[in-house]
Amino acid sequence: MSLGSRIRQTRTQKGITLQELSERSGLSKGFICQLENDKASPSLQALDRISAALGVPVALLLISHGERAYVVRAEERQGYSVGSEGLSVQLLSAPGRNLKMLLMELAPGASTGGDNHVHEGEECHLVLQGSVRYRQGDEELILREGDSLHWNGYIPHRVENCGCGPARILCVTTGAMEHMLESECEDSDDEPANR
User: Fold this and answer.
1) Dist CA 19 CA 82 (whole Å)
2) Topology of domain 3-67, CATH
3) Domain spanning 74-194: CATH superfamily
4) What are phi and psi of 158, to 5 degrees?
5) Which residue from 35, 80, 89, 121 has the highest number of Cβ atoms inside 10 Å of its Cβ?
6) Would you say the pTM of this structure is higher than 0.70?
């Protein structure tokens, strides 16, 4: 979406007419019309006046569509069953971004894989349900509902449900976990499914 389109969209969403924006910003109605139709480019001063008149930060007018808020509706989550380990994952964040948020569900005895794995970036986990054993290098930790941990992905690690019932974990990562899970899905011949 172009700058002019974003200005027009913001103006119309707020119910502001061209005349009102002109009066609030001190810029001519014709100039604003040209901006909205991408026939003119504003100076930084003019852009600042328009954003103030619209009651939005300048950055909101400048960000691309891909940088705006991305909503994942509960019924539209992209989900994967990974291997035969009893691990399922739902993607809760926008694709292609550096920060990823996942909801992992592990059946009793299930884990993130047979061997410890490594990847770039960091992970932060919040146990929502169950008891989970975390192994990182030589260290082993048991976390229960409400507990969280933060670790570096480049140290070999493994996550395992050590409880009697299912475990649910909210995972936020800056690493390649999403890519790793997709490759595990390919290896397991499981098809991604929307839930």
Assistant:
1) 57
2) 434 Repressor (Amino-terminal Domain) (1.10.260)
3) Jelly Rolls (2.60.120.10)
4) -155, 145
5) 89
6) no
